[in-house]
Design goal:
The chain has 131 residues and is an alpha/beta fold. Helices cover 41% and strands 18% of the residues. A four-stranded parallel sheet has the order 1-4-3-2, with helices on both faces.
Length: 131
């Protein structure tokens, strides 16, 4: 069973070859890389780049929530690939907890609006645990 066969539920482990699978399910997929994140500012920059936002992005938790739940600007089926997320959570547990809260709230509320938001944690290919 593939992750896109079911409604999004929390942060899920990304499938092998998530880009190809998402395309097959007609799910728009964006990637946020966490390898170079060391504080809230660098996190918001990673979000800006990963979600292809403009410089008008507010770079705060409310702005992130708004971006993820904006039914006019986001496709009805969106996957966000969280690259190196597990390592980020270990390095920055407080920041990760706040980010997770915002993303899960957005996932829940997007679902109430008829949109699907998958949050997929992908570990680096160099990590033998992800093979």
């Amino acid at each position: 069973m593939q992750v896109f066969d079911q409604a999004p539920e929390g942060i899920q482990k990304a499938p092998h070859e998530p880009r190809m699978i998402a395309a097959g399910y007609q799910v728009a997929l964006r990637e946020i890389g966490f390898s170079d994140v060391h504080d809230k500012d660098s996190l918001m920059m990673a979000v800006l780049r990963g979600l292809a936002l403009t410089d008008s992005f507010g770079r705060n938790w409310d702005a992130l929530y708004d971006v993820l739940t904006d039914t006019q600007a986001r496709p009805a089926k969106l996957g966000v690939l969280l690259c190196d997320f597990d390592h980020f959570c270990k390095r920055h547990p407080r920041l990760a907890a706040e980010l997770e809260r915002v993303m899960l709230d957005a996932q829940r509320d997007a679902g109430k609006q008829g949109h699907q938001l998958w949050l997929l944690a992908e570990e680096l290919e160099s990590d033998p645990k992800s093979w």
